[in-house]
Amino acid sequence: MWRGGEGTLRNYLVRLRSEKGLSQQDVADKLGITRQYYQMIETGERQKHLDLSLAGGLAALLGVTIMDIEHYEAQIHSTT
């Protein structure tokens, strides 16, 4: 599993998504959200934490655990 780069949620999600050959639109469609909202998740622009069902769906789609997603998400919120 990739842990890397600068350790940001954006880098982590972009890398995982690329490894799966998915676009932002592909991920959004599979999660039942808009591409714009998914883009906000990747960049950390949204104001609240991911809800559990969305984090679970994202983790399953990208082949990681919810804890992996939450680790990188916590880094965003600890700097804001």
From TrEMBL:
Pfam families found in the cross-reference section: HTH_3
InterPro entries in the cross-refs: Cro/C1-type_HTH, Lambda_DNA-bd_dom_sf
UniProt xrefs under CDD domains: HTH_XRE (cd00093)
Domain spans labelled HTH cro/C1-type: 13-69
GO MF: DNA binding
Keyword annotations of the record: DNA-binding
Domain of life assignment: Bacteria
Protein name, UniProt field: Helix-turn-helix transcriptional regulator
Source organism phylogeny: Bacteria, Bacillati, Bacillota, Clostridia, Eubacteriales
